[in-house]
Amino acid sequence: MATFVDRVTLHLRAGHGGHGCVSVRREKFKPLAGPDGGNGGDGGDIVLVADAQETTLLPYHRRPHRTSDNGGPGMGDNRAGFSGGALVLPVPVGTVVRDADGTELVDLVEPGMRIVVAPGGRGGLGNAALATTKRKAPGFALLGTPGWEGDVVLELKTVADVALVGYPSAGKSSLIAAISAAKPKIADYPFTTLHPNLGVVEAGDVRYTVADVPGLIEGASEGKGLGLEFLRHVERCTALLHVLDCATLEPGRDPLSDLDVILAELAAYPVPEGQTPLLERPQLVALNKVDVPDGHELAEFVRPELEKRGYRVFEISAVSRAGLRELTFALGEVVAADREARAAESTVRERIVLRPAPVHEKDFTVTVEGGSYGDVYRIRGEKPERWVQQTDFRNDEAIGYLADRLAKLGVEDELFAKGAVAGATVIIGPGDGVVFDWEPTLTSAAELLTAPRGTDPRLDALNRPTTSQRRQSYKERMDAKTEARAELQREREAGVWREDHAEEQE
Asked: 20 to 30 A Cα–Cα from 300, which one of 97, 191, 350, 489?
């Protein structure tokens, strides 16, 4: 069973917005006292928050489908619907969030950083909010828009100061267990470490984090062993510590050849743009297992060659703890120097530039697409697409209101400029979208309604018959049946038709 996951795909669906309400206030002597339909509530967002207490993406590996609450519909008497609660998902510090296409959205490198990856839908306006001086009694409301639905990819990159790299069974896990309180799995066979381990080391006044990644072998960049899968956890490290095995029993291996292989595999790993390549970062060498006599002799033999290459070399033993104090303090000096350099850079803050949106820039685009039955005019834009989602196409007033909004936005003028004529096919949105035949200068039906004061013909269809009206209708049906039976009896007595004649015809 998996215990560590550093890459997962989340399937998210944010809450939908609630629909607005169509309602008319009724008071004594005022059957139509004005609209009082409330607005729908907004759908809940899905938020990712960097949490220092989280260390793995395992909960999202087991439950990748996450959904936030929907907003409630509006109600009469100007009562707004409830808003859906936001779904907050804690992730480890160092998590990179990407969309389904691989584009990086945010890098959560600091505790408390948050991002709304799936915004909830907007609640629709009720008819009370849609009332104006010209449209005093709207007979429609806006629908709630659907929440964002899609996939995001979470990739964990461990935030550590020092990374331990080396061959399998070189003693990296034993070393991190000796210099910190970490308790990784330790055994006498290769690839014991299957996921990165973190440990906190204190060297004088400096406190830093050490990461132990699974071992690398020759050909790792081509997929051998565990490959370079876990080297993403080395990207954020300040320094690299090469742990070389001086007591290996495998033929053809020695500390120098092991170091050359590891350097070649590190060079084959591409770091993200803007980061320092791995081989250009501070590197130290730890010759491990010097407690073994042959290992001590080999360490003394290869040390001059490593120092000639420019490395600081330390002879250590994770078992006897020889040389660990010098090594931890040397790593602390490197980490402290890097922190001071970063602090000096952070004192010069980048100037914030506010760039307002252009005033004359259009909120939509109209493109002409060829079709089997003529040109098709596609309208794209955040506003037109949202307005279409909010429109109840079963209501003529709502359709007229949509036409008014599109006309004020300039869609009609742009369609004329593109060569559209009455009856042309117009699509709003991507793909199939919403298709309709364009009729210019379509007005809202609300302004065309005429009725006596205190009445509204749109509400006639909603009137239920009274008890006396139902009783009268029932009596009329019974009288009609009685008259029909009497007419049949008169025809029978007059000999117009006989029962035996009817049976013969059958």
From this structure: 191
Q: Which two tokens stand for residue 308?
A: 């000639």
The helix (H) or strand (E) run that includes residue 327 is helix 324-346
Predicted confidence (pLDDT) per residue in 157-194, tens digit: 777 788 888 887 777 778 888 887 656 544 443 444 44
Each residue's pLDDT tens digit, 468-502: 888 999 899 999 999 999 988 888 888 776 655 54
Residues in binding site for GTP = 166-173, 191-195, 212-215, 288-291, 317-319
Query: At CA 281, angle to CA 276 and CA 284, rounded to 5?
Result: 165
Cα separation, 453 vs 468, in Å, equals: 26
Q: Which residues are annotated as a binding site?
A: 166-173, 191-195, 212-215, 288-291, 317-319
Please report, in range form, the residues annotated as the binding site for Mg(2+).
Answer: 173, 193
3-state secondary structure (DSSP) of residue 210: strand
Question: Among 317, 426, 414, which Cα is nearest to 363's?
Answer: 414
Contacts for 105 with CB less than 8 Å, ≥ 6 apart: 97, 98, 99, 115, 117, 152
Mean pLDDT of 432-442: 79
Contact at 8 Å (CB) between 232 and 157?
yes
